[in-house]
């Protein structure tokens, strides 16, 4: 399993592999366009070639794409709903051109329509997103911290959406440790939490980890990342997580601030490489 972090695509997407390598990352995550919205830069054959050349140069095999923040599949607004679907589909297509392993997305908020209808709308929109898709990049749903009626704060809810969509491209979840801790999954009681996730969705559905400690207390429903071992989850929990990820060949991506992300990567690598 590889350990990496989120990096910027400033001044060109082909700069991302070097930025990742410079931080000691073995894999990385990017936005392929502004996460707040706006037009994506065209991926010309020259840009794609340069990106792949940089991947090879820095001995990097895997990278993943995070969908923009504005994705809201259960919005009551048709334009937002269909725009979200179009955007995620574009990310899958762009990912296939670049060779991305996964695109991961949040689902959106149930505030306008209520939980039941929001889940139905989300299933419908994900089906629309994947209709006719024949690319190589696969789709993951990332769990949420549950703030503001955001969907996907429990793995049982995500499992319900998986069952409704039933498409081979939607293969699993990206488990964010901070989001899950904030929504009631206590990584300090590691075995109990694994059993809970297994019961709700199945451990085989975990395809990627976002590894972030938590600034906020357990079950806070607040999205606040902290550097590894500096937050409420604690270093021992991450040592257990690294062991589990290593045994199951699941990559880990840090989303902590770049001031100390290099230290975070080093810490996780040391834990992984202990004899």
Short summary:
This protein is α/β, with parallel strands linked by helices. It contains nine helices and ten strands.
Question: How would you describe what is shown here?
Answer:
By secondary structure, this protein is of the alpha/beta class. The protein has one domain: Alpha-Beta Barrel (TIM Barrel), CATH 3.20.20. It contains nine helices and ten strands. Strands 1-2-3-4-5-6-7-10 form an eight-stranded parallel β-barrel, surrounded by five helices. Strands 8-9 form a two-stranded antiparallel ribbon. Strand 2 (28-30), helix 2 (45-57) and strand 3 form a beta-alpha-beta unit. Helix 3 crosses helix 4 and helix 4 crosses helix 5 (155-165). The longest helix is centred in the first third of the chain and has 21 residues, at 78-98. The model has no long low-confidence stretch (mean pLDDT 96).
How is this fold's topology laid out?
Layout: E1 3-6, H1 16-22, E2 28-30, H2 45-57, E3 63-66, H3 78-98, E4 102-105, H4 115-130, E5 138-142, H5 155-165, E6 170-176, H6 177-182, H7 190-200, E7 206-211, E8 213-214, E9 225-226, H8 235-248, E10 251-254, H9 261-273
Parallel strand pairs: 1-2, 1-10, 2-3, 3-4, 4-5, 5-6, 6-7, 7-10
Antiparallel strand pairs: 8-9
